[in-house]
Amino acid sequence: MTRMSEKVIWHFETDEQIHHSPTVVGGRSYFSDEEGNLYSVDVDSGTEQWCFSVDEYVQGSPVVVNGMVYFDTSHGHTYAVDANTGVEKWRYSVGFNGRYTEPAVADGVVYTVAGSTFRQQIHAIDADMGQVLWTFDLRENDDRGSVGHPLKITNSILYFISDGGVLYAVDTETGEMKWSLDGFYISTNETSYPTIIDGYIYIGCHDGLYKIGTKNKTSVFSLLSTSAGKIKWSHEDGWFLSPVTTSKSTIYATEKLDGKLYAFKTSGGIKWQTALPAQSISAPRLINGRIYVSNNSHLIVVDGDSGQQLETIKISRSLKFGAPVINNGIAYIGGYDGLRAVDINSQQSYYDHMEESSSDNSADHTKKYEEASSPANKETNNLLYCSECGNSLSEYETPQYCPSCGANL
User: Pyrrolo-quinoline quinone repeat domain: from which residue to which, for each copy (predicted)?
Assistant: First the structure.
């Protein structure tokens, strides 16, 4: 056997690139490739459970809620597919092609983006029936940009940013705009979407990192002191990627041009910054006090307190842009040639071994790397993890939202 990349447990091979982070839920990893194939893969073995193919480009990461997988495509469709079987339940068409991103799902409603040269809208769709509830039109609000960035929901408010550099807050019940804030420099080639933490939005943009208020607060000096839609602080130096991640009093963000990882105080000051090997091309993930960032060939591990680089795991020369998703000590990373599962805890080495499979539909895809000791002998991790992004929540007693991706728990 030929020695391969250390710590790689398995490699699910695809013919086309994987541009977006996978979604890991219920022992399965859901992801799409550039050819329009949506895969469900077992996280332990790397074997294919099903593949749902569309003759369209799948936009963003799939969203898995209540046993259904929701995703958007470049031809203006939103799909609902059974997470267990891969059978289509419904599809919704916005009526035109355009630039889209992943949907958001909350309280039985799917919120999807529809954008083209002449029309830019948000559609609210019944998650069970696939019927439209309301639409929000950007052009009616004097925004000439489109929406190509993921949506976030908290406290019945939908937040998103347009390519025109406008941040919106929209009521999820009515589709009416609560407020907007413009002036952000957004790149159409990079996703830039809000992370919501403790009532504040953090957005990485082409020209810096911003903290914006979302709530109206009472004050002893006035009947109502508002912070909603107002910038609390900004670090306007560098091209910061989204989403950011946080650990209580620290905000972590990667800067694209110089390839640096920053740790900010929630008040805006810099705690530390560290240069990473080559340019960092992914947003950071925080798990158990450690920061994980992937570039085009490595998974880089940094101590969250000191900024010290702890480890560089060589994985492949063909990694892509999606941030690693970490669940139960395993990092899942997409690339030019498929999805890899990487053990971030074990000190063992792995060796190249093509495992024979009794399943016809997975034999040509999965390359598994055997460990010196059986994975079945590993101690089970019983920590609480976010079902949306896989972030560990063990540091928090009763979390109401995920501090990494902002998802409601």
Answer: 7-93, 103-206, 223-309
